[in-house]
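Lay summary

Proteins are chains of building blocks that fold into shapes. Our project writes down both the chain and a compact code for its shape. Here are two examples, one after the other.
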Amino acid sequence: MGESELLDEKDIKKYEQIFKKLDVNHNGRVDIHNLRDELGMSEKYAQQFIAKSDSDSSGDVSLKEFIGYLQDQEKNLRLQFSKLDRNHDGKVELDEMITAFKELGVNMDYGEAVKLFKRMDKDGSLDISYNEWRSFLLLAPSTDIHDIVKYWRHSTYLDIGEDFTVPDDFTETELKTGLWWRHLVAGAIAGGVSRTSTAPADRLRVMLQVYHSKQKMTECFSYMLKEGGWRSLWRGNGLNVVKIAPESALKFMVYEQVKRFIRGETNRPLTIFERFVSGAVAGCVSQSAIYPMEVLKTRLAIRKTGQYNGVVDAIKKIYVNEGIRTFYRGYIPNLLGIIPYAGIDLAVYETLKRHYLSTNGSQVPQVWLLLACGSTSSTIAQVVSYPLALVRTKLQAMKVKTTEVSLNAEGIAMAHPIRDHTMSTMFKKIIREEGFQGLYRGITPNFIKVLPAVSISYISYELISQKLGINMA
């Protein structure tokens, strides 16, 4: 038996193992759902894979069809690899890849090339072997070099209702072609859908944070329904959705400017710490610009029925009765909360994802992996930064008082100045009255909404991206 036949037998056994993993129903067939659920492949690419491998047009793939497709795929992948391997040493280095892609008409800037290179370079050798190339692209629905690059690129948008996350990085090509604005639009719409879906949990959190007398979630939830009916569960959500677009746009613009400043004249990719610094600065600027909307959102969420006739009426009444500085109450703890939240969220998310990919050898982050990493990182970030968020919300909800009226010894009403609460005095007040556990009042609804918020945001973003012509491979 020849060496090529032995290799073919090994390959066939490998293909059979992959098929067995995908065939979760044990019916000898693999369909779109198996590819999507087991590999995290997008709906679009799963459909393309089935269309190209399903020779009898049955809508799914048998083991024979699966093996036949992968054998052809491997031959074509070897051909494409040889085109990139300019010096024929059996490996592709970064400069080699960039040069080859350029000659093949694929536009890719240095930063994106490094990012894609690292995704495939599992052993950290700073070059790509054929085995790494094949492992990553074997189940791609095409071997055309332009389609391979599309499959190689992967992006996602997760919105959990928090505004402290670090913005996504866009490639030079996306920036020059204007594709970036489609990502922002898709992200804004997905965020709106996600926040609206989880708005009752968000309002429940705010009510528990503000009203010390309502100790239990069930008690607080019953009060909201009794006081305003089921529609009151979405109070403040309209403004929470509206502020997504201006905040995301401003955060993106500042983020890009800070990245350029950090890079200087080079075009190198940013480290995690540099991304965190860029994201934190962008978050501080965007939050400063839209912060009055944050205060309004809180006031609208805790309002009683008939207290305000809409946003404009709320602005007028708050301004007349409490002054302009009310719209920046809680600003300091809000800014301070950006640092631990953005830093921990980014670091934990990247660490979990990279650890899984380095030990598991998965070629593309699966959907469940992205959702698990996103949920875990945001949960840990919330736990660390929550006391600051609690103080911020309580300060936002408090009405500004400069004087207080009391009766003197003769029974005459006298007005005297009072000291307004600051971040430090609010911390002391909470600890004095409720203990350290009081700093985490209302955190349970936050935990409850994380997973559905991330899932809804991801699914919404993918569907909207398809409509806008964004590749979500």
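And here is the second example, written the same way.
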Amino acid sequence: MEFDSVQQWLVDLEDRTETECMSVLQGKPLHTDGRNNFKTTQSINWKGGIDEISKQAVSITEQFDLLFKCSDEERWEELHQLSGHVTCQIRTLIQSSHQAIPQSTLSILQQQEQVIGECAKLAQKVESFNSRLCKVSLINQMTCLEQSFTHLIHLIITHLIKLMVKDLQVERNSAINLQNSMSSIISLSLEGENWCQLISHAGGVKSLLNVCVCESVKFAHVQSLRALSSICCLPEIIAQLEKEGGLCVLLDILCDDLQPECVKGEAAGVLAQITSPAIEHNHFIGGLMDNLQDLVNSLMGLCCQTESQEIFLLSTAAVANLTFIDSMACEYLAGICAPDILVSSTSTYKSQSLFSKDQIATILANMAASDDFHLSITRPGGINLLIDFLHISPSLYDTETEIAACERVLQKAAIALTRLCREEKNAQEILRLKGVPRLVELCRNADERCHSDAVLVASLAALRKVCMTCGNDSMATLDVKQLITPKLMDSFVMCSHSDENFV
């Protein structure tokens, strides 16, 4: 009998499923890859969540403006309907925040409760509103709700950015999360400086620098440097970069012969960004002076070796910015024959960008400020190159960005020529190469100078310097007396207020 029971059990076993066994099997990975040091985690689109919350918040803020307008104009029936719509939108946003944030913080949950409570109070006041005597109380309640809502949005966005930055911790995240986080940072930084501040406050600068130096994530070095360049748009963020040892990281990358060119190019881009003259009240980076020569040598080496237009532009931009910061940069450039490298590069593909020419003109103009470096500029044909830059016409370009770059090239080329004219042989060379007729054209033709007063002043100054150095007789046949005889201000006023050529 016992044998029959066992037999029956074995027969029944063929059609039975033990749920405990199935649960264990489902919980086991199908395979493991020992080569992958990253944890397999679900990829979360932080940027998408931030965008969705921000979009809804903007819409609700606009509704608040309408609420206050209805109150001012005493359109009570419309205000009654609109207040209900606003509270519904707020509840929808709170639901969206639960989806965007895997686990809300206590402060967010408490603020959500407060906002919902303020919504209820507003609904109660609107329902019981029956006299203009209650108007002040109603406005106060709408103000309280708006302030509570704004604080809630700040808490949610800040928390999402902290979670996004947390994904930059290479030891605890997957490669895809790391890349998604950096992509989100780059995208957010393009939307405004306030986003860059939030990323910096969340520890973004330090986390990105850690990615840059982590050997196990070399695939992410280019993207992390680009993200750093994107967020370093404010003096306080640049100061944070210096505090976290960012300059040393950049210097190590640029001076490391084993680093790929693409990584060096991005490091040059970060350096160009943090030294940009366009950033008002920029933070002074003390470490630059201590490492200036190494930086100049590394950047010019990159300019010489690369065939990429983008990397050449980033490298020359960084060098140009360094020449603004300290004149010693010009001395180091002269020591390694940098003008030779720059002049010879203009015949190659990598420097054909108008923006690269802008940087070359800047470097030569800043070097020309000192007589000590004039020979290093003129020897490889710098005057010829600068006159070629003068002949660049804005009519060849369509976008505002290109036309602005063209204006800068014309202005800086004229400034460089003016400085070089302190020596008579250089002024004579400008005459020989027919540079004066183009300077005259830039003064007389507003279209050719992008209608720029800066180009006009630089061109007038160059003409007068050539005349002063070579003598009036050398320019008598060129019909430029109207431009060089009056006072500079008189010539400027005459040229800037006339659309016709002089006869």
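What can we say about the second shape? The radius of gyration is 33 Å.
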